[in-house]
Every structure is written in C-alpha cells, then in structure tokens.
C-alpha cells in the first residue's frame, strides 16, 4: 500500500511539473521574459511561489526547463534521421518563423544564452549540449563525404556559421522586429556550397 501511494505521489509530482512547464511557456510567450515572474507563473498553476519552487531549485532552473520543454516540442520535426536535407532546412526555417510569434521565449533564450557563459550558471550545461546537438544535425545534412576530412571540416564550419547567424539574428530582431530572420537565414542556406539538396 505504501509503495502504491509513493508511486501515485511521484506520478502526480511529474504531472504537476509538466503542467508548470506548459503554463510557464504560455506565460513567458505572452508576457515576455521580464514580465513572467515566479508569482505570475505560480498563480497560473494554482500554487504559491514556495510551492512552485518545490518542483524546481530556483527561477533559473525553471527557465532552463522551460527551454528544454520548448525544444521537446520543436525537436521531433528536426531530429528525424530519415528527413531529407531540403525538408530538414524547411522545418528549421518554419521554427524560426514561429519564434517571431513568441518574442518572450526568444528573449528568454537570448538572455539565458548570455548568462550561460558562466560555467556555474544552471543554464550552462543546457546550452553546451544544445549547441552541439544542433551542429551535429546540421553537419549530418551538409556533409558530402563523411570519410573526407576536408569536406567534414567545411560542413562543421558552415554549421557554426549558421548557428551564429541564427542566434545573432534573434538579437537583431529583438531590437528591430522588422528583421526577417527566416528570410535572411534562407539566403544563407542557399550560399552554403556543401549543402546536399536531397528530398
């Protein structure tokens, strides 16, 4: 009976944590990174601030998990190993276009990416892992011959350029919402010489 009760409590805790992340995504998307206080997120899920932080070590840890949740929702379309190169980049551009509809999440990502430069910050491991994973996905679609060192190095360089431009465009867009992030990235993709245009 005790074990069953413990399993039930654990399952409820997992469900509540997921509810918090889902609602936090909505609040941040609507109110922005600065406007999304712990108090407001807690109220959205019917908890006190102390109750909310029972599920996360700190506000920073909560925000990192919010980004992980966003990735979890976006990644399946990008991470499918059977996706052709054209489809992969079309989905990437669609994600970038969607970002323009959720400025609060773009603000959160950009702010935490700066804070994560400190190895002690809770977001540091997330950004190290995320940047490496994204680069690997891009390289897999750019590499002409995986046994050719020069080709592999060129694909790695272009993947880093694409990532740097993508992150930089988000900062420009926050300063000037008229910036066409997806359109600019699309022009860059057309300029990548090692891209395989596979279906």
Automatic annotation (TrEMBL):
A matching Pfam family: TetR_N
Domain of life: Bacteria
One of the record's GO molecular function terms: DNA binding
Matches recorded under InterPro entries: Homeodomain-like_sf, HTH_TetR, Tet_transcr_reg_TetR-rel_C_sf
Key words, A-Z: DNA-binding, Transcription, Transcription regulation
Residue ranges constituting the HTH tetR-type domain according to the UniProt record: 14-74
Residue ranges: DNA binding: 37-56
Name of the protein in question: TetR/AcrR family transcriptional regulator
